[in-house]
Amino acid sequence: MKQATLHQLKVFEAAARHSSFTRAAEELFLTQPTVSMQIKQLTKSVGLPLFEQVGKRLFLTEAGRELFTTCRQIFETMAKFEMTVADLKGLKQGQLRLAVITTAKYFVPRLLGPFCQLYPGIEISLQVTNHERILERMLNNMDDLYILSQVPENIDVNYEPFLDNPLVVFAPVNHPLAKQKNISIKRLTNEPFIMREPGSGTRRAVQKLFDQHGVKVKVKLELGSNEAIKQAIAGGLGISVLSRHTLMPDSSEFAILDVEHFPIKRTWFIGYPSGKQLSIVARTYYEYLLESAKKFVEENGDYGNSHVEKV
């Protein structure tokens, strides 16, 4: 591989990651013939096929998989070196790859904004997805840091709690139960319920509580986003359990019901796989988040204290 260039490796890495020359070309702002030519030259340098096409699908060969792993290691090492050099110069710059659970999108931007102002040279890549996809990304070492509401059981992770994440029962503001206190959890059995999709950490936590108390709710809708659920609640389609943080900014359309065993106490964690060496930028944000979360609670209140609240 003496004649292989860094540019060829970048083209190959994009094509391998997307399993598509076309999508690699779009990402790198190249033409598809250019991508094909670069891959062809790299294949010649390696001396073995890197891709094989089965039907219309593109797959990596064994040599391709080995090269893909090597490319990821090379680019990660280079990125760390660039950030180290920048830090030695007294400049915090580089890239922060952050993956967060869907609900965290309601407060993470508020914690990222001041950080970006403090370190304008840092580029942020923010991925928002559900619990299962977060675990996939963590297993594939795709990000620097992860913000999640449940610590993985089958992955060795370094983590630290930084913020409470209470789950509460949402209803329309004019719901008959909105003004009642000490509502039995059994009362929810008769209510049309809106659930998050399977694979959601929120759904698992809610289902666990219901199973413990023998509650079987009537699931009227399953929706894949908190915003869709909130719209359904506002439209009178049912009630749901969501993180208290999803009411940021506050809305006058919803009430939080005073139901026994709620709120479900959960916590936000920031973490990364054990053995991963954090870049200077990632370490800086890790420490910044722990400190800024304390100020965030002071400024926005403790969402776990308010058991019943009209909003």
Based on DSSP secondary structure assignment, what is the total number of beta strands? Answer: 13
- What percentage of the residues does DSSP assign to strands (E)? 15-25%
Q: Counting H and I runs of at least 4 residues, what is the number of helices?
A: 9
Major β-sheet strand ordering: 4-3-5-12-6
Rg, rounded, reads 24 Å
Helix content estimate:
40-55%
Can you describe what's shown?
By secondary structure, the protein is an alpha/beta fold. It is 40% helix and 23% strand. It has nine helices and 13 strands. The protein has helices at residues 6-18, 21-28, 32-46, 62-88, 108-118, 131-139, 201-212, 226-234, 280-300; strands at residues 51-54, 57-60, 93-101, 121-129, 145-148, 157-164, 167-172, 192-196, 218-223, 240-243, 254-257, 267-273, 309-310. Strand 1 (51-54) and strand 2 form a beta hairpin. The longest helix is centred in the first third of the chain and has 27 residues, at 62-88. The chain is elongated and about 75 Å long. It starts with 5 loop residues before the first helix and ends with a strand. The relative contact order is 0.14. Residues 302-311 have low confidence and may be disordered.
